[in-house]
Amino acid sequence: MYDWKHVYDSWVPEEQPLREALCTLGNGYFATRGAFEEVNADEKYHYPGTYLAGGYNRLVSEVAGRKVENEDLVNWPNWLPLTFRHKAEEWFDVNQVEVISFRQELDMRQGLFERKVRFRDSSDRESILYSRRLVSMADPHVAAIEWELTPQNWSGEIEIKSALDGQIINNGVARYRDYESKHLEPLQQGQHNSDTIYLEVQTVQSNILMAQAARTRVYMEPKGEEVQSTLQSEKGYVAQCFVINCQQNRPLRVEKMVQLHTSRDRAISEPLLDACTNIERQGSFAHLLVKHRLAWQRLWNRTDFEIACNSKAHEVLRLHVFHLLQTVSPNTIGLDVGVPARGLHGEAYRGHIFWDELFIFPFLNLHLPELTRELLFYRFRRLREARFAAAQAGYRGAMFPWQSGSNGREETQAVHLNPKSGNWLEDNTYLQRHINAAIAYNVWQYYQTTDDMDFLAFVGAEMIFDIALFWSTIAELNTKTDRFEIHRVVGPDEYHADYPGSEDPGLSNNAYTNVMAVWVIHRALQLLDMIDDSRLEELFQKLSISEPDIARWRDVSTKMFVPFIGQSNIIAQFEGYEQLKEFPWEEYKEKHGESMRLDRILESEGDNVNRYKASKQADVLMLFYLFSSEELLHLFNQLGYTFMPDHILENIAYYEERTSHGSTLSKIVHAWVLARSDRRRSWKNFEMALMSDVEDVQGGTTPEGIHTGAMAGTVDLVQRGFTGLEIRDNVLWFSPVLPEEIGCLNFQLRYRSHWLSLQFTHNKMVVINDKGWAKEVQIGVNGTVYTIKTGEKREFNTNS
Ligand code: BGC
Glycoside hydrolase family 65 C-terminal domain spans which residues (predicted)? Predict the structure, then answer.
């Protein structure tokens, strides 16, 4: 890692799957893994993958004796292929030559992937191959490769091949290999003009059509005769081959420009026509790079930060921002997509969208709020499906799916394979109804950060009301206790999706779910006072909300049951939690390390994790992550429970000892909730969350796709968690607690039409109300509120 660069300076084939994921290039419209140009997918080191935002397809498979339908983010034709061979010999293969030197760099500032490899083949010919690649942030339909081959000790004829390869399947995740995986039907391929080939494919079920056009030009100085090409074409594959005479020490340069359009695109006539028309208009690689670099510069201007701590942490945080912006960027606007949990970087979780947006949107809200607005529309447009799901389950309102893809249907797989035991298991994690609270929370956070009242009144309120209706109808009154209860749900901790020995899926009264349901209903009630009567009338009519519904909201929001362990102050993760057995943590940590997938380990040992007080990830602690203690105590107070600030610390200590961190989201939450009480432990958790992807801490998950929640969550932890940034009562509050490891922190953020520059050290905080179209801003620092006018700079003593 050097400054803006993520560098690998030796060739380690075993690391290639991880490097491919981490060197993915994308632009929020599509992304391509950092596989080498010359490789085909194998089941060992190389897996070129190209994924389109919203590019899903469904296939029916027969697994574990039953038919199941899954929707996958499709691996689209590989546009990378570019290789060479000496006359009548094998094509270049980095695994078959002696690598003399190797360097691979991901340049995050420019969005450029570079590789320089010096190698010797079996005939003792030495060559240097230098390649640069970009996926244009400036024009989302364009990607390009520049490739330079320099013979070191030989001259002679070589053949260069540039191809588009649609003869591919989804094969990136080993445990999915029993499922059907052929999503693409080749339609046509051929040559458009002397230097351009094309390929057109279509998904077999969703009928998304993609056309790719590739223009390949070969340059050698001094210019000789025109290089002639031949065409190689078969169903789903097209290549152009060039024969060239190479001279020792004279670099041969190849430029491959690719234009990609799909039937999901707007402002096109027909994908193939537009691909071929637009490729002709593209300039050189250098020309593309200038525009691409400027587009990245604009994004970095909005999102970069300075942090004085160990430089590794800084660079990894930058890598996280980089990959997040490659997954969703201003190019995403208009695409009608959400943020896939594993980015556009691999096939894990089939490209589905979960609750991880809860960890991602806070960062986007403060830097690119126009993007969050767009991503929230993805949910808004899927209200129809969510309403249908609620009605099917016997509830009112909207019940969003735990895993979402194309049309908002529930996409959680019915069965999953435990790769440790080889057993197929029922998957009841779809019962994570808390996703609905996350969506409402995201709407509210967006509104809080932007003050976008039009969005709230015309889009957000409809979602919040419909979600509140859902919560108020899934909640059942227990007449004995006069408390509302929620049954048949699963909390964020997926290890407990049913009770030990029970045939029925789901749990009763997951504390996190119940409290979040109350919080959503409170927001719905608050909206009644915020939105003008005429709009309220429209919404009430559209959603069939009447006075008795509102009366029930008031009832549920004051009488929801929250389970506690015995007479203690510990919130029980769910009803009956205290009856579970304690887990022998030391024994298992010694064998499997700090972060473990205990569900898989125990199942392979014939046991079941649901028998133990062992969580996959933060569950109760999510409450302290999402809410300030003031807000939470207020919520509990309204419910008639005594809950004090000290109790929060007791709960953190209790669950810290009972969590296996089997999800990369978990460490973020633990780091966050410890930030004020135990900075050392908080930093330790933060460091582990930070390394989730760069070091692939879960051992094999990152090659299947990055973890967008953990990536955004770590940056957000620094920017909001360690600064105590919170928006409450129209005030932007700060209460910094910089860890000792961070000397200072500077960043810029967008808040309600202002650009604010912020600087933090351990005893000082500086706010500059830079520019924007609002005149003043209310800032609260450690309990006191100040008004800061545009252009004003203020310093505060903080002694964090
Ligand atoms: C976690 C979920 C998360 C999903 C996608 C799972 O392992 O348990 O909380 O939403 O991964 O990141």
Answer: 725-787
Q: How far apart are CA 146 and CA 426, in angstroms?
A: 48
| d(C-alpha 607, C-alpha 462), whole Å | 45
DSSP state of 351: G
| 715 C-alpha to ligand 1 centroid (Å) | 18
- Identity of the amino acid at 430: Y
Quick one: average pLDDT of 25-33? 98
Start-to-end C-alpha separation, the chain: 30
Active site residues: 494
Task: For residue 62, count CB atoms less than 10 angstroms from its CB and return exposed for 0-12, middle for 13-18, buried for 19 or more.
Answer: exposed
What does each C-alpha distance from 97 to 94, 119, 158, 209 come to in angstroms? 6, 6, 17, 38
User: Residue 83, SS3?
Assistant: strand
- Cβ pair 691, 322 in contact under 8 A: no
Pocket flag, ligand 1, residue 474 (CB < 6 Å): no
CA distance 446 to 703: 32
Question: Are the beta carbons of 148 and 253 closer than 8 angstroms?
Answer: yes
Token readout for 791 is 């252009």
**Is a pLDDT exceeding 90 seen at residue 799?**
no
As to burial, measured by CB atoms within 10 angstroms (0-12 exposed, 13-18 middle, 19+ buried), residue 14 is exposed
Q: Which residues of 677-686 are buried (b: 16+ CB within 10 A; e: fewer)?
A: ebbeebbbbb
Task: Give the pair of three-digit tokens for residue 371.
Answer: 């993007």
- The pLDDT assigned to 729 comes to 86
Quick check: CB of 18 below 6 Å from ligand 1?
A: no
Q: How far is the CA of 438 from the centre of ligand 1 (A)?
A: 13
User: Closest Cα to atom 12, ligand 1: which residue?
Assistant: 341
Of the residues 490, 494, 669, which should be mutated to test ligand 1's pocket, given the most ligand atoms within 8 Å of the CB?
494
**For 5-301, which CATH superfamily applies?**
Glycoside hydrolase, family 65, N-terminal domain (2.70.98.40)
CB 617 near ligand 1, within 6 Å: yes
Residue 403 confidence (pLDDT)? 98
Q: Is the peptide bond before 251 cis (omega within 30 degrees of 0)?
A: no
Rounded (to 5) percent helix, strand, coil in the chain: 35, 25, 40
Q: How many angstroms is it from 664 CA to the middle of ligand 1?
A: 8
Average pLDDT of every residue of the chain = 96
- The string of pLDDT tens digits covering residues 257-306 is 999 999 999 999 999 999 999 999 999 999 999 999 999 999 999 999 99
Rounded distance from Cα 150 to ligand 1 centre (Å): 46
Distance, in Å, from the CA atom of 398 to the CA atom of 408, rounded to the nearest integer, reads 11
Q: Is 341 in the pocket of ligand 1 (CB under 6 A)?
A: yes
Alpha helices, DSSP H, located in 717-762 = none
